[in-house]
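2024-03-11 09:14:02 INFO queue: dequeued item non-specific serine/threonine protein kinase, len=1020
2024-03-11 09:14:02 INFO validating residues
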Amino acid sequence: MMKLSLSLALLMLLQVSTVVFAQPRFSSETDMRALLELKSQAAENNTEVLSSWNNSTPLCNWIGVTCGGRKQERVTSLDLGGFKLAGVISPSIGNLSFLRSLNLAENSFTSTIPPEVGMLFRLRYLNMSFNLLQGKIPHSLSNCSTLSTLDLSSNQIAHEVPSELGSLSKLTILYLNSNNLTGKFPSSLGNLTSLRKLDFANNYMVGEIPDDVARLRQMVFFQISQNGFSGELRAEFGDLLPNLRTVVMGNNHFTGAIPLTLANISSLGRFDISTNNLTGSIPLSFGNLPNLWWLGIAQNALGNNNSFTDLEFITALGNCTELEFLDASYNRLGGELPASTANLSTTLTSLYLGGNQISGTIPRDIGNLVNLQILSLEENMLTGELPVSFGKLLELQVIDLYANSLSGELPSYFDKMTQLQKIHLNSNSFQGRIPKSIGGCTNLFDLWIDTNNLNGSIPPEILRIPSLAYLDLSSNFLTGSLPEEVGKLELLVGLSASDNKLSGRIPQTLGGCLSLEFLYLQGNSFEGGVPDISRLVSLSNVDLSRNNLSGRIPRYLARLPLLQNLNLSMNEFEGSVPTTGVFRNATEVSVFGNKNLCGGVREMQLKPCTVKASPRPRKPLSTRKKVASGVGIGMASLLLIIIVASLCWWFKKRRDKKKKNNASSTNLSYSTSVGKFYEKLSYKELHEATGGFSSSNLIGSGNFGDVYKGVLGHDDNNKLVAVKVLNLLKHGATKSFMAECETFKGIRHRNLVKLLTVCSSLDSQGNEFRALVYEFMPKGSLDTWLLQQPEEDHHSRALTVPEKLNVAIDVGSALEYLHVHCHEAIAHCDLKPSNVLLDDELTAHVGDFGLARLLYKFDRESFLSQFSSAGVRGTVGYAPPEYGMGGQPSVKGDVYSFGILLLEMFTGKKPTDESFAGDYNLHSYAESVLLSGGEEEGGGGSSNAVVDEWLRLVLQVGVRCSEEYQRDRMKMDEALRELISVRSKFFSTKTDAAEELSPRDAAVQSSPQEWMLSADTHTM
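2024-03-11 09:14:37 INFO prediction written
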């Protein structure tokens, strides 16, 4: 019996020892197989990087692999960061059971994070940042109970942050920034009492920050910017989180005041809560933070335009000896800029105070800030001259003083400021000559000194700056010629010297500006021909109008591949107009006011070119006849010289008066401000053209007057026009008239209604009369099509889907031109269906610029008075929320209106629909349709899925454009690209796409509202 027991014991011992000794070998093989499986599913951009991962090389010698354990045979660390791997992460990674550190950052892994990662219960460090991972964060990660660092930033991970992460009690670093995360901030994260760094920035999270965050008392880094978080910051914020060093909460929807208790966080170095909705004053207690080096509070509603207290915080910040960055721009700060600004720390590199209502002068000791690199004080009310100490700012890279009331001469010390990259001194009252010393700024990129009172010649020195990309000298009183040195600017992208007194020939050397895209020389006295600029293949916008240029229009202009807008009007060109390239489209080229031009495309309405017959031989003139002929020619020449001189004197006098007087003067000769195929018309001519302004010719009524159909010309030259007669008794009508004249000056686009001419005269009763004459749009306005209320034969059907998409793209193209491609950005400010007109081919043209604003000349009071006078009813639903709260006009306001217009076109619902109330509006309706029916409707395998997909994409553009906050809206060019992509992907051409519609498409075509309702019903 004893022998049997002993034998059993020996047998068991042998089995145990076999298991013990066999297990390491088996486990290392498991690790090897797991890694080889990972390699097989990971595509290598560099095929050599994992070449050591093979059966002939010991596992622990593989690149990126570190082994550990008792026998040093288990994989404890895998570091493949930056190896340029792609493919998917194999689930076999969960078999690396001894793994403590896993780094897959900076690769291109796609698909999802395998849930098997949750099997790595020894894992302490997990970094999968900077990949292309999608899907959800696996809930199984909560099983990695020893995890200290979790970094999944810069991927495409979506859905909510799992509340299970709150069980990772040893977590010290949690980076989930730059993903597509949604939902609220999990309150369970308050359990992570060891957490020191949290980053949720650049996601789509919403809601208030839970009170549980106050338990994270060890936290030193807290960043949640670029989300949709809201609510007020707790008053005891600084007492609850006493160890914070970095707080970044910008670009959210926080309200209320900045907590005074922030002063209790003595370690706080960076605080940024820019672009929110904060109110109240800026706490003086910021001055008690000895380590503060970054303070960002821009784009809120801080301050009360109070001349006594708003800027006291600047004085307090003089105690912050580490301060490097201060941004309080675009708030409601008023009062004089304190002299104590010059007492801020000498470590200060960036000072942003623009977009407020700050008055006074620039402190004379501003030169004390010797390390200042960026000084941004634009759009304030500063006066006086630039102080002498400015010349001490030798590190300055950007100086932006745009749109103030600064005066005096420009200083001569710029040559010492060799680090300058941008000089924005435009829209002030500087006078005198342009200093040659600016030529010493050899790193200069932007030089904007337009819209001042500068005189004298253009110094050649500034045209020798090799880095110069944008040069704007427009709207001054500069004389002389454009120096030939301009040809040395090979990197120049934009050149504007318009509306000066320049003369002479445009230099041939201009052809050396090989990067030039924008050339504006209009409103001068240049003469001679157009120089050879045929090598400037990047040119997109050229305006040489209102000069004395002569000769033939160069044929090479038609061959410039990117040229979109060309204005040669009001010159002395002669000969035939090309018909190819940019000249094919009359809306992109303006040549009016050149009486000796002929030919061109039919829409230009120029006289035909005649071929001269060979002259017959004539008898020689007698001596008597020669003398008589010579005298006649001499007298005619003398008379011509007198006429030309008189005209030049008259134009000069008028132009100087225009410079001197406000642009809204009623004495302005409007016909020179707009494109005109007709001379300025009289009241009598318009009265006859419209049948005495007959009600039978009334085609519409706007905010400031009525629109009549009229016929200009006689016999075969008749042209249908639309005549907008201003009701001058209406408040704002005169400003509306001026706005349209100013807006149309120098702009031409195929999707803008063409303003032909104007009339400023007296009617038959002796009353003041003003009218605008537009090209007639025979298909009426878009709103009559959307309402589906036939008025004419051409309204007997609804717009097809492709036609609607084309209209949307046309409108988007017009807005993109106004926002991006005009010399100065223009905001329409009143986009709605009734202001979109259709021609015979259903091409859309945006009109009614009565509220439009050239943004660089924004007059807040004028804008608000016009907007209110337009009648809120007329624009309710289309106007962005910020306009109703007194916000400034902006291109983002137009984007909002475009988004609403797009949603109306493709849902069949107006923004003023009775079903909308409170926070439920057209935007939220479209959002709900996308959320409830987007995936389900767009799925399936039927042909209908194609229709669903295009509609989903279009609605997404509409929703993104009509976001409540400006910062969340798309840019116009981005929206336009999206719509063009939809058209090219789902509809083959503009004309025949309608024939490809399925029955489901036909439903959308005939009644989009019914289709949307059926989609809602289906998803329910």
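2024-03-11 09:14:37 INFO annotate: The domain at 672-776 is CATH 3.30.200.20 (Phosphorylase Kinase; domain 1).
2024-03-11 09:14:38 INFO item closed
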